[in-house]
Amino acid sequence: MLRVGLALAVILRHCFPISYGMEAVIGGIGWGAAMAIVPMFFILSGFLVTGSALRLTLGKFVLSRVLRIVPALVVDTLVTILLIGPLFTNRTLADYFASPVTHSYLLNMVGEIHYFLPGVFERNPVSGVVNGALWTIPPELGCYVAMAMLIALGWVRDWRLVTGLLGAVAAIIVFGGQIGGVPPVVLKVLNYPGAMLVPYFLLGSALFLKRHRIPYSPPLFGMCVAMILATGAIVPKAVFSEVPAVTFLAAPVYAYVTLFLGATRLPALPLFARGDYSYGMYLYGFPIQQAIVASTSVRNPLILLILTIVPVVGLAMLSWHLVEKPTLRLRKGFSMSARIEAERQKAERS
């Protein structure tokens, strides 16, 4: 449920710029909460993926991650190009499909992200951006590369070595321009806007290895939530955007909130009990929101959220049951989560 909750939070956060334009932000204490959403996603991912990585060889880990991420991304890319684009483009279909911009969008399947399709959503407040949520795909792939390196080096079980890699990556992101001897290609990769998400992933990984030492404390959780909200009221947006070190200072707070919620039995929603719909919600949320704005006069974030939920959850359910879940079965020979899912299905049939 935590992943679904975070996916819904991402959709809510996007409602504001999609309604009012890219300069629109959630103000006050809501800004602090909005800034925490994506880091919390990556912390949770690092925590969960490490549990899988400890049981897998390097080859099986890479195959597992490819099967989990790529098929649904491929289908999302094709749905966007073949259905959403033609419905909302202001070009002729011949021009639309012949355009190099359309062809470039296909590269989203392999993690080279393109945001535009010819003539699509050009009159929206966020002009022309078809799926702005995909900016996190490259850093997510970078996280898997980092985890693969930890497996290959035999470091994945040692929290000190994982923490050391975390510190090294964070230091290069913050001080890379002043550190001598860093290869330009490394600086280019780590200067990517989403690169700062990789240390959050590694923090989640290190915390998984020390999970038995983390206290479950409601007062500490309340204090961390208060700090996040207070940050939004006190610290300007520009500080988060321009000073990565400030973002990393908040990492322990984000991490504790994430792990506390993950360890807490959250209310179960019947609609979400049949699968993990969070990835599909992430993939389809932004383009559906853009489509609603393009086809209606809605410019209110809360109304946009309400109108978005049903179609996005519907598409996420289709993605899970038709694409992600069948792919999960391909991993059942070596994936613990796939084995658990297979056993659950077997129990339901008996």
Layout: helices, strands, pairs:
Layout: H1 2-20, H2 29-53, H3 58-88, H4 93-98, H5 100-105, H6 137-153, H7 159-175, H8 184-190, H9 197-209, H10 218-234, H11 237-242, H12 244-249, H13 251-263, H14 278-295, H15 301-330, H16 336-349
Describe the structure.
The protein has 350 residues and is an all-alpha fold. It is built from 16 helices and no strands. Helix 1 runs parallel beside helix 14. It is globular and about 60 Å long. The protein starts with a helix and ends with a helix.
Concise account of the structure shown:
The protein is an all-alpha fold. The protein contains 16 helices and no strands.
* SSE succession: HHHHHHHHHHHHHHHH
- Give the biggest beta sheet: none
Give the number of DSSP strands: 0
| Proportion in helices | over 70%
Radius of gyration: 20 Å
Q: What sort of overall outline do the alpha carbons produce when their principal axes are compared?
A: globular
The percent range for strand residues is under 5%
Tally of alpha and pi helices:
16
Find the structural class using helix and strand composition: mainly alpha
Poorly predicted tracts of residues = none
Mean pLDDT, all residues: 87
Distance from first to last alpha carbon: 26 Å
